[in-house]
Amino acid sequence: MQHYQTIVALHIIFAGIWLIYFAADIIIKRKIETSNNQQTKNEMISLYLQLSNLFGIVGSIGIALTGIAVIIINSGYGFFDMSHAHWLATKQIIFVIILLISFLKIIPNSKKLRTAISNSDSEAANDLLKKVFNSNKIVNILVILNFIFAITHRFYS
Questions:
Q1: What is the pTM of this model?
Q2: Measuring CA to CA, which of 20, 34, 35, 146 is 20 to 30 A from 157?
Q3: How many domains does the chain have?
Q4: Contacts of residue 14, Cβ cutoff 8 Å, sequence gap at least 6
């Protein structure tokens, strides 16, 4: 229990990284959508993909590792235990869904999008960009939902 508070603080910081990405996501999407120059648009898409990748990796790995540590250290919590901490089990299920969307949708479509941009295939790039935008929107909504569960569970547990 000696490092418990530090691990919880790190867990909150990693959640904050995801929330910061949510704000950046909105801003960069607008810049991409309003860009008239294809070169600038492609550069903004590349930046968007880099930020998605960076924030996604740092946020998800950080959340996963610190979340697992919190559960191991705190005997009051468990993995996918709906009988005691239903809010936590729900958060864990949502996190698994986020990971599935990331690995099955966002990563493959982002790789295809990078290829389409480098091949100057703007039609394919636009279709893939919409898919990545939609997948990231779903992940952002789920992240916000998890954040809401985290900050409100004391009111209904």
A1: 0.82
A2: 20
A3: 1
A4: 58, 59, 62, 63, 66
Distances 72 to 7, 45, 77, 107 between C-alpha atoms, Å = 11, 40, 8, 30
pLDDT digits over 10-53, tens only?
Answer: 988 888 888 888 888 888 899 888 888 888 888 888 888 888 88
Spatial distance between the Cα atoms of 95 and 4, rounded to a whole number of angstroms: 21
Q: What's the burial of 129, exposed, middle or buried (CB within 10 Å: 0-12/13-18/19+)?
A: buried
* Residue 121 to residue 38: CA distance in whole angstroms: 11
How many Cβ atoms are within 10 Å of 78's Cβ, its own excluded?
Answer: 15
The rounded radius of gyration (Å) of the Cα atoms in the chain is 18
Q: How far apart are CA 136 and CA 132, in angstroms?
A: 6
- DSSP 8-state secondary structure symbol assigned to residue 80: S
Task: Write out the residue range of the structural domain in which residue 69 sits.
Answer: 4-156
The phi and psi torsions of 91 (rounded to 5 degrees) equal -60, -40
